[in-house]
Every structure is written in C-alpha cells, then in structure tokens.
Amino acid sequence: MFVFPLLATVISLIFAGLLLRQYAEKKKPYQLVWSMALVMFGIGALAETLATLGSWNEILVKLYYLFGGTLVVGYLGLGTLYVSGDYDAGSPLATFFLGRRFNTLISTSLTFFLWLMIYGRDMFRTNSIVALVVTFLYLAILLTAIFAKEKVPSAYLFVILIGTALAIFAVSQGAIADPSKLAETEGWRALGRTRGIKTGAFSLNVIGSFLLIIGAIQSSISLIRKHIMRQRAVGNILIAAGVLVVAAGGTLGGLLRLGGQAAISIPMAVGVTIMFFGFLETGRATPPSQKPRPVTETSRARGR
Fold it and tell me: How many domains does the chain have?
C-alpha cells in the first residue's frame, strides 16, 4: 500500500516547513536540526512511496536506506542536545545527572560498547583503519563531554557530519547484492549491506535513540522535582515516543520480517506525527515561573 508511506512523506515535509518557519522567527538551533531530520525522513518515505507505486531500483533503495534507515535518528538526537542544557537542579549532583553532559556520556559509552561487541572486534581484524576512525569519532564525543561540556553539541555536530559523509560514501558505493529482490515489496533488502554500512546505520540510530530516551527521562524527572520546563519535558517525551514507534515498526517488519512492509510504513506515519507534536510542544513559550536557572558559579557554590 502506497497510502502510508505517502502520508508519512506529506506529514514530514509539511512539518519540516513549519519548523523552518519557527527557526526563521526564533533562530533556535534545535528547530533547524529537527527540520533537517524531517526532510531526511520525508526523502526516505518518498523513496518508499515511489517504489510502491512502481518498483524498487538502485537509486530508490539507496535513498530509502540512507535517509530513512541511517541518518534521521542521529540528527534527532542532536536536536535533543541543543534543546537540553545544564540547568541548576538544586545540587551539583542533580545538575550533573539531569544535564546533557551525563546524557552524552551514557549514550556514547553504551553505543560504543555495543558497537565493539557487535561489529568493532571483527572490523579491527578485517579493516583496522575504518575501525580506528569510528573509534576516534566516539572518543571525540566522550572527551568533549568530559573536558569541555559546553562544547558537547558542537562536538556531536562535528562527528555526525563526518558520519553522514562516511554513510553517504558507503551507501553510494554499495552494490545491489540480489537484483531479484527489487521486484519484491521489501525491495530495499536487495542492497548489499557491508560492515561499514551496518556500522553507520547502527551507530547513528543507537546513539540518537539513547540521547532521545535519556533526554526524555531527564526532562520528566526535572518536571516532577521542580515543575519547570513543562513544554520541554512533554516535547522530549513525545519525540522519544515517536522514534520508538518508528523503531518498533523497523524491528517488527525489518528485523523480524513480520507483517511485511506495512509493518514499517504504518508506524512511520504514526511516529512522525507524534514526533511533530513533540517539536511543537518544545517550541512553545515557557512561562517565566517555569524557566530553569542556568548553572552559575553562585549555584555551584551554594551546592557545595
């Protein structure tokens, strides 16, 4: 059915335009990043729509895998880092655990460990140069979070841009391993997914998902503790929920191969809608009484 991928395409591109308009007015980095993520989502959904109306070909397969299956969640995670911050939570310990520095350290460490276990060890034996580059990118984020926490979004942006370039190169160089699959509904499976392609998709999806989920948990705790930043808390929760809906479809239809392509495309349409409501909630004006205090030397001294 072409209806659901078409719906996901239209929704994501309309929402991207609305977020760009917000960015033109407010100049918030997360609005620009999330609008870019929605454009990527729309390109992936459009590729599926065209394939459903006609048939899969090499270009549609690569567009779908690159934009729909590799890049989107990583950029959503970047938006979460921009919208989050290190605010005075009443004590240095609470401020650390509820800040983006902690989120970045945990998300990056977990993703790096999982990558080493699943792909990294074999990659160091077969293609050590690529494995070292990937390791360097992970360490760049971790070291920035440890020694220059105010630069965390910039470091993640630097790394994700390099990761994007590498993913584009890897997917563009990828070959159609089984042309006969192009005639099937799930024709994107025809792409020969090398370890490099899998590494890019895994790293960006997993680290982005961790950033979103942990960010949503942090926002929820902040709301419960001090009743501040309600819009940010609700927005982060909705965005994380939307990503989980899309991921559930990808797991069901992509990994487990249950329900066919509809198991992927229907959650895509539902998930992007939930995400957009989260974007809108995050962009709403925050009442002065709910605004958090930024971390200052005074607040640090008070917590000692």
Answer: 1
Q: What pLDDT, in 10s, does the model give residues 227-286?
A: 656 777 788 888 889 888 888 887 776 666 677 777 788 888 888 889 888 888 876 655
Residue 87 Cα distances to 63, 158, 213, 292, angstroms: 39, 24, 19, 6
Q: What is the pTM of this model?
A: 0.87
Alpha carbon distances (Å) from 251 to 13, 107, 174, 256, 277: 24, 20, 23, 6, 23
Q: Nearest to residue 59, comparing CAs of 73, 77, 70, 46?
A: 46
CA Rg, the chain, in Å?
A: 20
Range of the domain at 39: 3-303
Residues sharing a CB contact under 8 Å with residue 301, sequence separation 6 or more, in sequence order: none
Q: How far apart are CA 80 and CA 92, in angstroms?
A: 22
Query: Under a CB-based contact definition with an 8 Å cutoff, are residues 50 and 80 in contact?
Result: no
- Cα–Cα–Cα angle for 267, 279, 253, rounded to 5 degrees: 15
Residue linked to tokens 């927005």: 235
